Amino acid sequence: MPSPPSSDGWTFAHGIGGAKDLPISPELAIAGATAALVVSFTVLAVAWRTPRYDAAKSGRPAPAWFVGIVDALWWRVLWRTLGFALFAYVATAAVLGEDLVSNPVFGVFYVWWWVGLVPLSLLFGPVWKAISPVRTINAAFAKISGSDPDRGVFTYPERLGHWPAAVGLFAFVWLELVYPYSTELGPVRLWAAAYVAVMLVGGALFGNVFYERADPFEVYSTLVSRMSAWGRRDGVLLIRSPLANLDSTPALPGLVAVVAVLFGSTAFDSFKDSTRWVQFIQGSDISIYLLNNLALLAFCVGVGAIFAAGTMLTGLGDDLQRKHLPDLFAHSVVPIVVGYVFAHYLSYLVEVGQLTLVQLSDPFSNGSNLLGTGNLEVSYWLSYHPTLLANIKVIAVVAGHVLGVIAAHDRAIRILPQRHQLTGQLPLLAAMIAFTVGGLYLLFAA
């Protein structure tokens, strides 16, 4: 096994680190995962005949003492202050720091922000909504002007739904995975500045609903938080089953595009490091940059198209239009996205995440230790236990798909006509199996 990277820098060739990290049979893993999906569907078809997850009825109120803390003004202000303080600290490092890969901006941008939002949102709910610096700035502007941050100049168009968030997420993964200068400070600064500018203008024009629908990171964090145990109904904080919480996901336009970008980009991240793709682009006369752009787009569009086909190829009643089915079932992809993010980025998050904490103490690369974390040692324990790491990755992928099948089945028996409640799910099951096989193949091939 190669030695882990030193603590004074790293390359952002993140993810699973190649097949050497997975010392188990890929054929066995793929066969087992496919069997798990088929068996799960069979059991559901026999034993699960009525809907069990209803966000409108499920859940119990959280303890009063806990609600008193979470809903208190000082609690919300505390997290907004911490979020803005981190934003200001990292922005200072971005503006005044050295253009070196050891600058903590890269770790915060690509690791803490992108990957770290997943476990945080699973544990605590919609984290980005609570700490978002653009929400904080917008609220401050509204306070100064005497306006209401919840209300903008215009009403946010319903037809836009989550489409702006999907575009923003694609712009982020393009910068991370395709743009050849993604580890230079200039492009990261420009991307972050454009994000802040668009969010502030959108918030001023449409109010806070713009962040709920169009902020790529708030939409991302909120979607993942649907798999947490924390939910709200009519403003009341609830504790409920994650799958019941998932049922509360609004079926807005563009939701399929969001999950397709999240899942498709992660799959592409594995694919671009596979031996076959590397050999192909090295032997091709076409620009590598162009090929990677086309491949990323193909993965995202392909995931969306396969899922849309799997949901639309079913019989319908008179009161349900086929074109609405993909958005109605899109919530079932969220567990798959979460499982695959953990499978693909686990060691990257743990190890480079620690390294980022070390580097945050020296934002200007001058040997300072401002936060007292500069002398911490990075633990590479996971990399030194490849069998355990492999098992965690495979379990994460399989569990995500099984939960996706359960969520889709529960939605199907609620909205599909009785005669199509089982047969109507077969195309979607085929799509889920295709995602499972493809995901595990890429996991091993990278």
Work out the helix count: 19
Number of strands: 3
Outline the low-pLDDT stretches.
Answer: 1-21
Strand order of the largest sheet: 1-3-2
**SSE order in H/E notation?**
HEHHHHHHHHHHEEHHHHHHHH
Summarize this structure briefly.
This protein has helices spanning 26-47, 64-70, 73-96, 104-113, 117-124, 127-131, 133-145, 163-177, 185-206, 209-214, 216-225, 242-246, 255-271, 275-283, 288-312, 325-329, 334-360, 386-415, 426-445; strands at 60-61, 230-233, 236-239. It has 446 residues and is mainly α.
Structure description:
The chain crosses the membrane at residues 28-48, 77-97, 109-128, 160-179, 191-211, 288-316, 328-350, 388-406, 426-444. It comes from Nocardioides endophyticus. This is Fenitrothion hydrolase. Keywords: Membrane, Transmembrane, Transmembrane helix. This protein is mainly α and 446 residues long. It has one domain (19-445). The protein contains 19 helices and three strands. It has helices at 26-47, 64-70, 73-96, 104-113, 117-124, 127-131, 133-145, 163-177, 185-206, 209-214, 216-225, 242-246, 255-271, 275-283, 288-312, 325-329, 334-360, 386-415, 426-445; strands spanning 60-61, 230-233, 236-239. The protein has a three-stranded antiparallel beta sheet, with no helix packed on it. A hairpin with a 2-residue loop joins strand 2 and strand 3. The chain is globular. It starts with 25 loop residues before the first helix and ends with a helix.
